Amino acid sequence: MDCCSTSSSLLTLSQALDKLLSQVEPVGQTEQINLTQAADRITAQAITSPLNVPPFDNSAMDGYAVRRSEVTESAVLPVAGKAFAGQPFHGEWPTGSCVRIMTGAPIPAGTDAVIMQEQTEVQENGVRFTAMPKAGQNIRLAGEDIRQGAEVLPVGSKLGVAQLPLLASLGVDQVTVYRRLKVALFSTGDELQTIGQPLQEGQIYDTNRFAVRLMLEKLDCEVIDLGIIRDDEAAIRQAFAKADAQADVVITSGGVSVGKADYTKQILDEMGKISFWKLAIKPGKPFAFGQLSNALFCGLPGNPVSAALTFYQLVQPLLMKLSGYSQWQKPRQIKVKTITALKKTPGRMDFQRGILSSNAQGELEVKTTGHQGSHVFSSFSQGNCFIVLEQERGSVAAGEWVTVEPFNPLLES
Ligand code: AMP
Ligand code: MG
């Protein structure tokens, strides 16, 4: 394949994704860790509940525990005692009396309903009830939420704010998770300068390594940052060897086009096996995927928007599969009208950056972030979605329907 390949020889995004995901398996190694250390980790075993939730029958209301057969419209039942949350009632409960009970308190043996206090009248010698209770009223039964032994999280779940407190509520304090992925990263380019250093003539800042590092951290990977590597065959070869020896995945940026100093692909051909190179998407055409002797390899394009887009669309699902995550889904897409015209040439699928919002009628609509050059990173900071324009589509007029993909948390602020 060369620089002049026609669009028909380029892989579509979905072909590339299928190819990439079908070639990899989760790393598989596991470790047992404390729940407090488990944020963002992936479960390597299904988690079952060691307890019933709730663990005992308890009251859903502040009110009175009764035996229904003793409740009539005229009956006034003396109060035999009190049950509070954390302080069960252990006293005598004579026939013809009731027990004051608070929300969350264990239900005294023999109770068959709780009458809420709003349906009672407190009198000198007891309580009269203004509504007749139904069987089981206001009683939360043991195990009604989760039964002991029931599966609460399948294998491959990500442990986040919705999952960890659930496990804590079950008394689970150790979890078996997959080990974190090790990802080695370097940028290539003689023009690149490290952030924080003054720019010399002809230099630009290395934004890709920073962007990719941030995304890897959000994906809970261990990052091995090998810095900026000059456009020098020997240096790049050495960086590949070092990265390959330490990591599960090696990610590079730049050097995968067909310029004179674009050695990445050539060295990869030598040191590993390229699975595919070049996609029918814009931006992001020169993306390479392959295998080194130990690690997988992803070569991101040099242009920052292309690098971030291909990372998001391809590397993100790859890392999720490798990490053992089992619930990855293709990004959600919706159809909305564009309120601005969008420039496009047929041939590749465009991922333009857009701003999705609701209009005065409460309908969603999208507009462009403006200049769509693959070096214009501000399109990510201004945008909140991709406007996905089909491969063979041309320019789009204002008012036409387009497909939109809201950014997921990897790009959301
Ligand atoms: P390349 O793929 O190496 O030919 O790079 C394509 C374009 O992206 C060139 O304009 C590079 O200067 C730019 N570029 C490459 N790497 C980076 C990077 N790490 N950060 C910002 N721009 C980059
Ligand atoms: Mg370069």
Automatic annotation (TrEMBL):
<dbReference type="InterPro" id="IPR008284">
    <property type="entry name" value="MoCF_biosynth_CS"/>
</dbReference>
<protein>
    <recommendedName>
        <fullName>Molybdopterin molybdenumtransferase</fullName>
        <ecNumber>2.10.1.1</ecNumber>
    </recommendedName>
</protein>
<dbReference type="GO" id="GO:0046872">
    <property type="term" value="F:metal ion binding"/>
</dbReference>
<feature type="domain" description="MoaB/Mog">
    <location>
        <begin position="184"/>
        <end position="321"/>
    </location>
</feature>
<comment type="function">
    <text>Catalyzes the insertion of molybdate into adenylated molybdopterin with the concomitant release of AMP.</text>
</comment>
<dbReference type="Pfam" id="PF03454">
    <property type="entry name" value="MoeA_C"/>
</dbReference>
<dbReference type="InterPro" id="IPR005111">
    <property type="entry name" value="MoeA_C_domain_IV"/>
</dbReference>
<dbReference type="InterPro" id="IPR001453">
    <property type="entry name" value="MoaB/Mog_dom"/>
</dbReference>
<comment type="pathway">
    <text>Cofactor biosynthesis; molybdopterin biosynthesis.</text>
</comment>
<dbReference type="InterPro" id="IPR038987">
    <property type="entry name" value="MoeA-like"/>
</dbReference>
<dbReference type="InterPro" id="IPR036425">
    <property type="entry name" value="MoaB/Mog-like_dom_sf"/>
</dbReference>
<keyword id="KW-0479">Metal-binding</keyword>
<dbReference type="InterPro" id="IPR036688">
    <property type="entry name" value="MoeA_C_domain_IV_sf"/>
</dbReference>
<comment type="similarity">
    <text>Belongs to the MoeA family.</text>
</comment>
<keyword id="KW-0500">Molybdenum</keyword>
<dbReference type="Pfam" id="PF03453">
    <property type="entry name" value="MoeA_N"/>
</dbReference>
<keyword id="KW-0460">Magnesium</keyword>
<dbReference type="GO" id="GO:0006777">
    <property type="term" value="P:Mo-molybdopterin cofactor biosynthetic process"/>
</dbReference>
<dbReference type="GO" id="GO:0005829">
    <property type="term" value="C:cytosol"/>
</dbReference>
<dbReference type="GO" id="GO:0061599">
    <property type="term" value="F:molybdopterin molybdotransferase activity"/>
</dbReference>
<keyword id="KW-0808">Transferase</keyword>
<dbReference type="InterPro" id="IPR036135">
    <property type="entry name" value="MoeA_linker/N_sf"/>
</dbReference>
<keyword id="KW-0501">Molybdenum cofactor biosynthesis</keyword>
<dbReference type="Pfam" id="PF00994">
    <property type="entry name" value="MoCF_biosynth"/>
</dbReference>
<dbReference type="InterPro" id="IPR005110">
    <property type="entry name" value="MoeA_linker/N"/>
</dbReference>
